[in-house]
Amino acid sequence: MRILKKILIVLILLFSIVLITAYFMPKKYEVTREIVINKPVDSVFNYVKYLKNQNEFSAWGKADPKIKLTYTGTDGAVGAIAAWESKVKEVGVGEQEIVKLTEKKRIDYNLRFKQPFEDTAAAFISTENIDSNQTKVKWNINGVIPYPMNIMLPMMNMDQMLGKDLQKGLENLKTKLEQ
């Protein structure tokens, strides 16, 4: 009985240390990738602002050719929503909504993930004119991992995990628009 009591005390102490550590760990993450596309800013922005076009370049859209997509609202305008359903775990089920649009500059989204886990995040795609035939495109995803799950954030390496998909999407976008 004394051994069980000691084991229980050790487990409670370890659990307490994890909770205390998580309290002081970062909860926010932010991942950004960028690329230069040899096209004018107007043509790049007018392509990326449409949710229906994202499936043509997004690494997640290309991961499942059988993905089920539904759209509501006016595509390319605030309030437009693209919802997806996929049996591919990396894609899952969720939706994104355009929440702010600054013409020729930036599109802001809210992302709502439903499966394989429930979560929300924010994202944006911005376009910046470099010269008359070059545009810098940035793609950003940011969010918060709630306490105490944030203890996993350093082990998850969100920059590497999401960054490779953002970069692949931007490379696909560049190929698509420059052909």
Helix-strand layout with pairing:
Layout lengths: L1 H23 L3 E10 L3 H8 L2 H7 L1 H4 L5 E5 L8 E5 L7 E10 L3 E10 L3 E13 L2 E11 L8 H4 L1 H21 L1
Antiparallel strand pairs: 1-7, 2-3, 3-4, 4-5, 5-6, 6-7
Organism: Flavobacterium hercynium
Keywords: Membrane, Transmembrane, Transmembrane helix
Pfam family, one: Polyketide_cyc2
Structure explained in plain terms:
With about 180 residues, the protein is of the alpha+beta class. The protein has a single domain (about 25-179), classed as START domain (Alpha-D-Glucose-1,6-Bisphosphate, Chain A, domain 4), CATH 3.30.530.20. It is about 35% helix and about 35% strand. The protein has 6 helices and 7 strands; from the N terminus they run αβαααββββββαα. It has a 7-stranded antiparallel beta sheet with strand order 1-7-6-5-4-3-2. A hairpin with a 3-residue loop joins strand 4 and strand 5 (about 105-115). The longest helix has 23 residues, at about 1-25. The model has no long low-confidence stretch (mean pLDDT about 90).
